[in-house]
Amino acid sequence: MYTIGEFSRIGMISTSALRFYDEIGLLKPSKINRFNGYRYYSEDQVEDIHFITEMREYEFSLEEIKGFIGSNKINLVAELQKKHEKLFWKQQKILYVRRKLKERIKKTQGADSFMEINNKANKLEIKVASKDKPIKTVGISINIPAWPPEDASIFGDLWSQYWDRDVSSKISNKIYPSVRYGILAFTEAGIQYIVADAVSSYEDIPEGLVTFDIPKGEYAVCTFNGETFDEMVNSSMQRANDYLLTTWLPKTEYKHAESFSLEVYDDRSRKKEYPEMDIMQPIVKKG
Q1: Torsion-angle region of 61 (φ positive above 0: left; ψ -120 to 50: alpha; else: beta)
Q2: Three-state SS for 130?
Q3: Strand-pair partners of 191
Q4: What are phi and psi of 272, to 5 degrees?
Q5: pLDDT attached to residue 281
Q6: Which pLDDT score is estimated for 127?
Q7: Quick check: 228 and 95 in contact, CB under 8 A?
Q8: Cβ neighbours of residue 247 under 8 Å, at least 6 residues apart?
Q9: Mean pLDDT for each consecutive 10-residue tract of the chain (287 residues)?
Q10: What is the pLDDT at residue 120?
Q11: In Å, how far from its chain's centre is CA 113?
Q12: Which of 46, 60, 142, 279 could join 55 via S-S bond, C-beta 3.0 to 4.6 A?
């Protein structure tokens, strides 16, 4: 048995935190001396306190951790994957804000060159792929008054909203839990940008979300990368899209369908070094 002082050192937390864990039912002492009220913890609880400390490091709330204890491994893995993804996009938001700050500093100071762009990441591969059935998607969107938009930061802002509001976790019937789509749609109603998950059906769609059907057909799929995620979704994406539409496509038997375009983010996009992704443009045969 361990005294509360010994156990606090094992768990690397304060004794007051252990008393609070007892009060809320997160981790109760194995034994309390009925004469002096001293708390004692067992050897079996060492794993529990290490687990709690680890989950706190991952920014889970005490209420969430309370639900994890005794939960099956499948549920825990799913929650850890969601947290991993959410923290990844939180990190990307920080990188995005830092880039915007650098641009503001450059603009304010009137400097000719605030930073150099590293072009070591130059993967660029294009292939034609066919989708034999539509893909249903659900997400959030913004309307764009004119194309191109005056401020491209609206795309990053929508992605930030998607993760800040934890939209993905509210969507049921997801097909690909680790894949997200950025959809730029040109319709009679106007121009719309959507951040979405693929779903098996449109049942139980949360209020305020929109739907979009990615149609079946042929697509030009351009795979590219960047030295960092920030570089990939900015300079590399623009370069890849320009090359696909203005250089590669005119040399083929296809032409651009022009109704929409897709950005595909999956596990490759989460790589620390040289992350990569796909952009997909719908195409049809010429003639």
Answers
A1: beta
A2: strand
A3: 144, 186
A4: -70, -40
A5: 96
A6: 94
A7: yes
A8: none
A9: 89 89 93 88 91 90 89 84 83 76 74 39 88 95 88 87 86 89 89 95 92 95 90 89 93 90 93 90 91
A10: 52
A11: 31
A12: 60
CA-to-CA distance for 5 and 39, rounded, in angstroms? 9
Contact call for residues 178 and 266 (beta carbons, < 8 A): yes
Residue 121, CA distances (Å) to 30, 147, 226, 228, 279 in order: 56, 28, 5, 9, 16
Q: Which residues pair with 278 in a beta bridge?
A: 223, 264
The whole-angstrom separation of Cα 67 and Cα 50 is: 16
pTM check: above 0.85? no
Q: Measured on CA atoms in the order 232, 234, 237, 238, is the torsion positive or negative?
A: negative
Cα torsion 22, 28, 33, 39 to 10°: value is: -70
List the end-to-end C-alpha distance of the chain, in Å, as a whole number. Answer: 82
Q: What are phi and psi of 244, to 5 degrees?
A: -60, -50
CA 68, CA 279: separation in Å to the nearest integer?
38
Residue 83: per-residue pLDDT: 87
Q: Token pair of 93, please?
A: 């938001």
